[in-house]
Give the backbone structure.
Amino acid sequence: MISINTNSASSMAAYNLANSNVNLQRSLQKLSSGQRINSSFDDAGGLAVSMKLSASIRRTEATQANVNNATSFLQTQDGVLKNADKILGRLSELAQLSTDVTKSTGDRALYQTEFSGLTSALSALTNEEFNGVGLFVAGGDTLAVVTSEDGGQSIGITQSDLDDIVGNIDSISISGASGATTASIELLNTAIQDLANLRATNGSEQSRLSFAADMLAINKVNLESANSRIADVDIAAESANLAKLNILQQAGTAMLAQANMSQQSILRLLA
């Protein structure tokens, strides 16, 4: 049957051309954005998984920043403890010098002046802070550093008790007739050992945070790889698809024109 009112071939060609145009636009969007999923229509399930993975990546990055800040806290604390070590070393030296039998009372008084000044300087170190948080707390305290993006793992870092060390040597006097007593020198040696313990604890906590930071970095890489496999476009495959769609669009345009031309043959039957 030949009909003027209906051109099925033209309608089908227009339908196929419209689909080719839509798919071509989607392919162009994927290649221009670098993402396979640009809307929920592209892959609803994949989009949901990708959203959760992206959130995990951002939490991992935030956790990395927190761990790095905690490491900086410990590094700052160790810097103060290193300075305290220098002070205690000099205090111990002064105490030993004061026992020299050739030193006069005036000499020992001068040693005591320096000793008292250094003791005050050591006491001032207990007030040091990192971003408003005390590096040292009387009695000691532990700060929990979260080391996993889900909040399930943490490492404790210590706000050391430097006050206890200062308190033990605060009453030492080296200005006596024979200088520092044996008990005073033993107190200084004990303070040096206690300080060494604090630095050892600091070092072990820095080491643990370092391993935690490495694990976070590895987890981030794995999460990014997993998300990339879901959300990122395969450039090679999509480029091939774009070439195909371009051909289909051109062919569809030509066939639509051909289908529209076919109606012209009816005029020859009426002539």
Remarks:
- The mean pLDDT is 89.
- The two ends are 18 Å apart (CA to CA).
- DSSP finds seven helices and four strands in the chain.
- Strands lie at 129-130, 133-134, 141-146, 154-159.
